[in-house]
Amino acid sequence: MDSLITAAARALATGDPLGALNRVALRDDAPALALRGIAMAQLGDLARAKSLLKSAARAFGPKEAVARARCVVAEAEIALVSRELTWPAKALDAARATLEAHGDRVNAAHARNLEARRLLLIGRLGEAERMLADPGLVPLPPASRVAHELTVAGIAIRRLRTKAARAALDRAGQAAREANIPALMAEVESTALVMDAPAARLIACGGERPLLLEDVEALLASGVVVVDACRNVVRDEGRVISLATRPVLFALARALGEAWPQDVPRSTLVARAFRGKHADESHRARLRVEIGRLRAELGTLADVTATSRGFKLVPRSAREIVVLAPRVEERHAAVLAFLADGESWSSSALAIALGSSPRTVQRALEQLAAAGKVHAFGRGPARRWTTPPVPGFPTTLLLPGPLPSD
Amino acid sequence: MKQGQAEILREYGPFPNADQVHGVTFDGQHIWFASGDKLNALDPASGKVLRSIDVAAHAGTAFDGEHLFQVAEDRIQKIDPETGRVLATIPAPGGGGDSGLAWAEGALWVGEYRGRKIHQVDPETGAVLRTIETNRVVTGVTWIDDELWHGTWEGDESDLRRIDPETGEVLERLEMPAGTSVSGLEFGGGDLFFCGGGGSGKVRAVRRPR
């Protein structure tokens, strides 16, 4: 490498993108384009960064496979930060293989971490964990360790392993201080805030209170029956009964759970489950059928027994039944949960992350936009959605994904 | 053109606090190598770094018998090896695209990496006296009597080559093992070259063919 490229690369590595740009701003050779691209990305001009990196990848010679692969990794990182989840994961995988084959273990590990972060973002926790399980036996530079530990923490948070999450965040903080890059320290701090902000509400015995992530973990391990409205399941310590695809049954379970140990009048259950105002005979007949189905689903966790005015839940072995509800409840909460990360998302990226159809997400976004809860900018495929950050708006438990016991 | 495989006789490093090796020179006793923000004096017998000078050191390094010369950003610094003081600075001919540096015949010889050129430069003023074109990227540059050698490094392929100083024609080529990059280059006396190993953080002694 030549002198100014070395100097610019050193500036970038110490978190000084302006210093790097100063040195290579007027150069259009391949390494200069790549460095300018990374510097622009660090400064937040992602569109310019992307086009610079594309030009750099083209400008490197046919024998400079490693340099090309590094450009692909940097492009992938920009796509990830821009929430363009449709970018070709295969290209990143191929770049990682090239880097590994040429002994560039640090950048290969970085590529692996990016793949894990993407999997984490789209809720494929198991695959993300496998991706991180083999970081190679290479001592990573501090900045790469921060990214690695943040991903580990992200997985632990989604899996409700708060001790592991805190340990990973501590290691990330330590590495960020070693790297001495303010943006990284800020990222670790903002991730750590999730641990200290209410993550859900507990509704029990007629009252409710906010729960921290650690409280949720403790609750799920405490032996009570939890009607979990964050994931639409009913569970105790060992068993999880998913009602995610049975909204009527879950609505009944939740109404019964909120009232426990009291019973719930038929008319209330009809209103909650069928959105009917009055319980006529046909509603009563349908309610009997649905209660029968719920009883069958809940099986050994709890029984649903009839009372003079309605129904109530009776735990089989647990001493208590509680309801775990999202901190903020509204329609399209899952869409808002993703947008609450403060990034701008395309509707197709949201559809990938939510595992639903683009049309469904589009409809939800249009309704949210009409209510003033999200904003769109850009046109056509470049259109992005964002939401003004709501202080304390939790994302963790609203994110659909595998449960801690998976 | 004579052609052969480079024979690596010894590897030094990687060294603590020096993740890259750029320029390399030899003062008859110590191998000096540039590691970004330092010039380091390496004892070729023990393989230990004896002392370091805190000075910007981004590319080629040379020794004129008294002073060290070091490429930093788009300049060439003249450094007192005893005190570490920068005595003078001249502009580098490649405007920052400079790589290798050598001293010979009272002039500095500066490799321009992607420009595939070697410039002969007046060490007092930085004026370019003449330019030799080559067909490969230039990393380290060194003179052995009347032989001009330079390193190349493109992707996985790296070699040491002797070129005709008049025409740039390649006269001899020593191919480095795959993945062994050459950054700096210096004749180490006798049958030795010293090569900077770039991102490997190593300095290598390579046999000079007779």
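Chain A has 18 helices and eleven strands.
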